[in-house]
Fold:
Amino acid sequence: MKNIKQLTEMMKLQDKLNNETNGSGWTSGTTKEGNEIDWYRCARMEAAELVDSFQWKHWKDLNGATDEANVVIELVDIWHFLMSINIGDKFSVEMIENVVVQTSPLLRVKHDRKSRISFIEDFMKYTFIYDTGTLNVKFFTMLFGNGVDMDLLYKTYIGKNVLNTFRQNNGYKVGTYIKNWDGDKKEDNEYLQDILNVNNDLTYDELYGKLEVIYIDEMKKLKPTI
Structure:
């Protein structure tokens, strides 16, 4: 039941975000401005960014640490797009929950870097094959294979949904939103993670309010003094 509750809330929030950002007709594949939407490509590009969380380049230090915090963020970004695919294709929460149950044993195994990257690249491959059911399996295989459970997915998704809404409300789409705070040294994603690290039970509105307070303070610092 817990998985169902979490999945239901996340799907509702994603549908709401898509309606606000792209218009109520987004499931037809176009935004309210008439621009084409390609959720599969969106997921694929985020997956490529996820691979870069690992030290994989042979001309660099392969023994360097994986950016585990970014692994979580990128997986949640992919989940935004995959939920949009599921909503558009009318996949039910129960259908997705069955995939969660099927793939969750992967959490019991600690996978090495090579295996973790292979899960990601396998998911990327299937973004070229428009089969939502299989893509769900590949996503949760990738998620659990990288050690991220449903609770962490849910907690981080709620945070990112708040952040995405916050960005849209503060001019992200028209280019007036400032993504890097603290004198261009720290991204809003990092501020979000800082808040989540010390607050496990914030509501949606409380989290939004905390971001707003920080953002207003940072914007004041950017105003030239007279």
Notes: The beta strands are 180-181, 186-187. The mean pLDDT is 92.
